[in-house]
Amino acid sequence: MAAPHAPSRLPQHVAIVMDGNGRWAQKRWLPRVAGHKQGVDALRGVVKACIERGVPVLSVFAFSSENWNRPVDEVSGLMDLLVLALSREVPSLKKNGVRLHFPGNRSGLSARVVQGLEAAERDTAANQTLVLNVCFNYGGRWDMAQAARRLVEQGIEITEDNLSRAMALAHVADPDLLIRTGGELRISNFLLWQSAYTELVFSDCLWPDFDAAELDRSLAEFARRERRFGQTGEQVAEPELAGADQRHA
């Protein structure tokens, strides 16, 4: 059932750069990994909110290919947190109809992590309520490079359509809305190809504090946008006006 405050015009695919975990922890004199743990709780709430509002696809940036450059203890803590989160969260996600995907480069991950990702994808493969893409060890440039390499290896011509079909998120449509939390005004190598016509919303809220109310603010901002895809405002309005005329005929 849709949430009472959900806007009438919903994005079909929401993408989120979940930024601010470390700063949230530092403000509380806690280790950075404590912020990441709180971030898992925030993600749980946003998944629930998306289901309630009828958003069918959610993609989140959990670990970028550049995050390997962070302190060793933080990277190690993130890997341990991922394994723990999989064991704790997957049963509930499966029960609530969430289908998990983990787009990203798995060649640099440990066997334990890869096995956990593969098991979670298998266990939730039949679910249809929400597709949750947890982009882990992912980068937009990596995605374009691996897609091009795959086409070359298969002898397929490199075109926009073929590249799109070879991307790591080819199983879903491109995002309609991309939210960046934490007050930074960039998308940090996330879904570069897929976000060509995505609406961008930047929130000052640190990710561990991001909740359903913050999500609703972003959804409301999206609903106010006019998406033209290269057309003029008049061209976009014409089909809408025609539809209104038919409804009142």
Description:
With 249 residues, the chain is an alpha/beta fold. The chain has a single domain, classed as Undecaprenyl pyrophosphate synthetase (3-Layer(aba) Sandwich). Helix content is 47%, strand content 14%.
**Measured distance between first and last alpha carbons:** 30 Å
What is the domain total for the residues? 1
Record field, number of beta strands: 6
Strand order of the largest sheet: 3-4-2-1-5-6
Q: What is the name of the CATH topology? A: Undecaprenyl pyrophosphate synthetase
Identify low-pLDDT runs: none
**Main β-sheet description:** 6 strands, parallel
Task: Please name the fourth-level CATH homologous superfamily.
Answer: Decaprenyl diphosphate synthase-like
Describe this protein with a few key phrases:
249 residues, 6-stranded parallel β-sheet, alpha/beta, 14% strand, Undecaprenyl pyrophosphate synthetase, single chain
Short description:
The chain contains 8 helices and 6 strands. With 249 residues, it is of the alpha/beta class.
Please describe the topology of this protein:
Layout: E1 13-17, H1 21-27, H2 32-53, E2 57-64, H3 72-95, E3 98-101, H4 111-123, E4 130-138, H5 140-154, H6 160-166, E5 177-180, E6 199-202, H7 212-224, H8 233-247
Parallel strand pairs: 1-2, 1-5, 2-4, 3-4, 5-6
Helix pairs in contact: 1-2, 2-3, 3-4, 5-6
